[in-house]
């Protein structure tokens, strides 16, 4: 047992080392990610590459483990023991009692599903979700009348040849069939217009998925959480590819759920090889999401390559925390904002008409204007935190617009990362084809605090 675990751990470490040199979470992959390419095809290529790498890692591990010497069994002996007596065959009455317990458990399951359905129905806000829920519930109501009649008949007179396991098999098959049909209904509900729809439609979609996951885990013996969330993600990927490339708002919304459900699939994995595969896919889809957010920035510009893609983890940190920081500033007054930043370990530099706050990692800046109640959340390509300066900040870096080259922007509720200035001489990072939209994007980067 210990040797088996040790081999799995060793192989996993070998895979991690292998991926650290040629893996997915790096600047080159993000720089070269084109979100207009079919995501399904990119995932297929990604999985193929991971499996090839895992095969090579396994091969190297096995070669390193081989010993040239032969093992001898001289002196070994086999201990012969008497075989245990066969277990007594249960009487038909015992089989009947077991079947009655199985039938009672099945009815309890059906009652629990009905109560769960009623509870969930009260949470749903859209008619489409309620209709889907009712259709799912209809499939979950399996027919058990014939089984009940048979058990009643057998309880009065046991058959000479009792049908052992027949009840368990029938219940299992019916539950499994109900699960498959119900899941088919759930999948049909997952349309692009739902995934990229209103806040109510999206909330109902997540509620239905959570409901089905809970129900199916007691309905189907074959249920596997990793497989369930993986299947949903695969459907979301098809939805993404089916949305026109120009509709980046819808694609951005769908990618949010592709990543969210991909993370759930990853969290449910217990096999090292499957973990590497799922991890790589999640990494790829996250790159797609970030590439869409950067869609208005020229990623080929020399400054972008130098400042961002050499240390891409800084950009990931910014993209992860910028939305919540934007909400913090937009929903609170200045005193509350500055109090929260101070508690969070941020450092401030008072510059003319504004205060510039820098986060503990030196990746994010928040500018609070003194008079206009305007704020911006910006990305710092270089870390300005330096203990040798009076304020603890290198103000030259903060004053250099090339280092604060990106800002967080919201458009129709979706996050985007845009060039930090309209002055092309200072920040020439707008793609030429998208410059007609830059004023709208720039206005979204300037929020107002209360």
How far apart are the termini?
61 Å
User: In angstroms, what is the radius of gyration?
Assistant: 30 Å
Following the backbone from N to C, one meets helices and strands in this order, namely HHHHHHHHHHHHHHHEEEEHEEHE
Question: Into which percent range does the helicity of residues fall?
Answer: 55-70%
User: What's the tally of helices?
Assistant: 17
* Low-confidence segments: 1-25, 70-81
Describe the global form. Answer: elongated
Strand portion? 5-15%
Describe this structure in words.
By secondary structure, this protein is an alpha+beta fold. Helix content is 60%, strand content 8%. The chain is built from 17 helices and 7 strands. The protein has helices at 2-22, 27-32, 39-65, 92-123, 127-140, 145-156, 166-189, 192-195, 199-219, 225-242, 248-267, 272-293, 302-307, 312-331, 334-343, 395-399, 438-445; strands at 347-351, 354-358, 364-369, 374-379, 406-411, 414-419, 447-448. Strands 1, 2, 3, 4, 5, 6 and 7 form a 7-stranded antiparallel β-sheet that branches. Helix 3 (39-65) runs antiparallel to helix 12 (272-293) and helix 4 runs antiparallel to helix 9. The longest helix has 32 residues, at 92-123. The radius of gyration is 30 Å and the shape is elongated. Mean pLDDT is 86; it is low at 1-25 and 70-81.
């Amino acid at each position: 047992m210990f040797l088996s675990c040790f081999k799995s751990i060793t192989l996993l470490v070998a895979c991690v080392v292998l991926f650290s040199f040629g893996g997915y979470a790096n600047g080159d992959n993000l720089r070269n990610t084109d979100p207009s390419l079919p995501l399904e095809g990119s995932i297929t290529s990604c999985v193929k590459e991971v499996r090839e790498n895992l095969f090579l890692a396994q091969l190297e591990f096995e070669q390193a483990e081989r010993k040239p010497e032969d093992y001898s069994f001289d002196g070994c002996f086999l201990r012969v023991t008497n075989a245990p007596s066969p277990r007594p065959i249960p009487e038909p009455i015992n089989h009947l009692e077991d079947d009655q317990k199985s039938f009672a458990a099945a009815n309890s399951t059906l009652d629990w599903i009905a109560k769960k359905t009623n509870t969930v129905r009260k949470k749903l806000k859209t008619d489409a979700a309620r209709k889907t829920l009712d259709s799912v519930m209809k499939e979950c109501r399996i027919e058990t009348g014939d089984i009940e009649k048979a058990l009643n008949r057998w309880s009065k007179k046991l058959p000479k040849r009792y049908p052992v396991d027949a009840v368990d098999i029938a219940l299992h098959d019916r539950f499994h069939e109900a699960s498959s049909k119900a899941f088919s209904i759930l999948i049909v509900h997952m349309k692009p217009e739902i995934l990229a729809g209103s806040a109510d439609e999206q909330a109902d979609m997540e509620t239905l998925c959570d409901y089905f996951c809970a129900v199916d885990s007691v309905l189907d013996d074959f249920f596997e959480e990793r497989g369930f969330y993986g299947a949903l993600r695969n459907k979301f990927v098809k939805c993404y590819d089916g949305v026109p490339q120009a509709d980046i708002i819808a694609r951005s919304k769908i990618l949010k759920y592709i990543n969210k459900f991909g993370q759930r699939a990853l969290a449910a994995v217990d096999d090292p090889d499957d973990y590497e595969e799922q991890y790589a896919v999640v990494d790829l889809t996250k790159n797609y999401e970030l590439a869409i957010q950067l869609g208005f920035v020229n990623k080929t510009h020399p400054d972008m390559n130098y400042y961002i893609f050499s240390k891409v983890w800084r950009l990931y940190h910014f993209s992860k925390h910028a939305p919540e920081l934007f909400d913090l500033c937009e929903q609170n007054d200045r005193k509350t904002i500055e109090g929260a930043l101070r508690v969070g370990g941020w450092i401030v530099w008072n510059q003319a008409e504004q205060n510039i706050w820098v986060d503990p990692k030196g990746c994010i800046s928040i500018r609070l204007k003194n008079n206009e109640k305007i704020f911006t959340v910006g990305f710092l390509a270089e870390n300005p935190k330096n203990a040798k300066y009076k304020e603890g900040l290198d103000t030259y870096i903060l004053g250099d617009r090339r280092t604060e080259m990106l800002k967080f922007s919201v458009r129709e509720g979706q996050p985007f990362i845009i060039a930090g200035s309209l002055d092309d001489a200072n920040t020439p990072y707008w793609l030429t084809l998208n410059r007609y939209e830059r004023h709208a994007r720039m206005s979204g980067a300037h929020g107002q605090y209360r």
